[in-house]
Amino acid sequence: MQFVAGRQTELSSATAAEIGRLGSVVAWVHGLPAGDLVDGLSEPADLASYAEERLRSIIATAVWVRDPLPSPVQVGLRTAADSVRRSWVRARDAPSFRTGGALALLHGDIGPGNILWSPDPVLIDWNMPG
Questions:
Q1: Second label for 57, Cα 20 to 30 Å away, from 7, 31, 65, 128?
Q2: At 49, which helix (H) or strand (E)?
Q3: How far is CA 97 from CA 47, 49, 81, 88, 91, in A?
Q4: pLDDT tens by residue, 4-47
Q5: pTM score
Q6: In which domain, by residue range, is 87 found?
Q7: Residue 77: CB partners within 8 Å, gap ≥ 6?
Q8: Same domain, yes or no, for 28 and 60?
Q9: Does residue 85 sit in the same domain as residue 98?
Q10: Confidence band (pLDDT; 50, 70, 90) for 130?
Q11: Are 51 and 93 part of one and the same domain?
Q12: d(CA 19, CA 115)
């Protein structure tokens, strides 16, 4: 982690050249193999293994779905979690999860609040799975 001086800019006010540089940064980031990024993280064997572990991690955090949340909200969140679980059971053996390709870094939330322009774009607000 390091400090990066920069400014935030609404993407609608960015120039075409700035958007082009952002596209280059995003392409570069998405081309990085996940296993080369951080020592000590166990890299899943494939996309299906990653998705399974990520789902387990997200569902495990649902312990906060309790009082003082209103009962209808609790029911809705549990229903949504059950729906995601059922969808995963149906999808996990699909060919799209069995590509055999290496996992790559993906930001997933590239918006004005997660980009610093210094003068080139720097992606911030990374999330570690788990």
A1: 31
A2: helix 47-60
A3: 6, 9, 20, 11, 8
A4: 888 888 888 888 999 999 999 999 888 877 766 655 456 666 78
A5: 0.57
A6: 44-102
A7: 62, 65, 69
A8: no
A9: yes
A10: very low
A11: yes
A12: 11
